[in-house]
Design goal:
79% helix; globular; 9 helices
């Protein structure tokens, strides 16, 4: 067998962690999260470390410990900012926002603008849609429906429909309805069938 680099090992372990989470296998998920952090420490790469710690934080919140989740992600924010890791900062902000808006709306409101701005700057459409979804829930709950409509409309009008932006369409329709505005049409995603 050919030797595999630590960076590739990290990616394989991260994939194993995501599959375990999807299957509800918390033991394998936690083992993989810890292994990804160990590999990141071994290769001394801050980007990998922030990614590994995000995975560990997700294990913690999935296991019922939102306080530990927030503590780990707060550390990730510091590392990502200190090292100027834009993608990792965006992912961490979005993950933190996902936990904050249901439990601490004031803290979520303080994070929401930075989360969306950083996500858009990364250029990753999937993570931008995740960030906009979490931001949309925050704007909805604080009653900032105009900001919700503006941000989701800007994104949706500039991008083709995807399987991951359905919640953005729904939020935009709900906010338009509440504001008494014309409900924008929803474009269907084409099918090869």
């Amino acid at each position: 067998a050919l030797p595999i680099s630590s960076e590739h090992q990290f990616e394989v372990v991260s994939l194993r962690m995501n599959v375990a989470r999807a299957r509800g296998d918390r033991d394998t998920q936690m083992k993989a999260a810890l292994e990804s952090c160990r590999i990141a420490e071994e290769i001394q790469d801050q980007s990998h470390l922030v990614r590994g710690l995000n995975g560990l934080a997700i294990c913690l919140v999935d296991g019922g410990s939102p306080t530990a989740y927030r503590a780990v992600l707060t550390q990730c924010l510091g590392l990502a900012r200190e090292q100027h890791l834009l993608a990792e900062l965006g992912r961490t902000l979005s993950n933190l926002l996902a936990e904050e808006y249901p439990s601490d709306l004031a803290r979520a409101a303080a994070l929401v603008e930075e989360c969306v701005e950083v996500a858009k700057r990364t250029g990753d459409a999937y993570y931008t849609e995740v960030a906009l979804t979490n931001a949309g829930f925050t704007w909805w709950l604080i009653g900032d429906w105009d900001r919700l409509i503006t941000n989701t409309s800007e994104w949706l009008d500039a991008h083709e429909p995807t399987g991951s932006n359905g919640s953005l369409w729904l939020m935009r329709v709900q906010a338009a309805h509440v504001r008494g505005l014309e409900v924008p049409p929803i474009e269907a995603i084409g099918s090869e069938d």
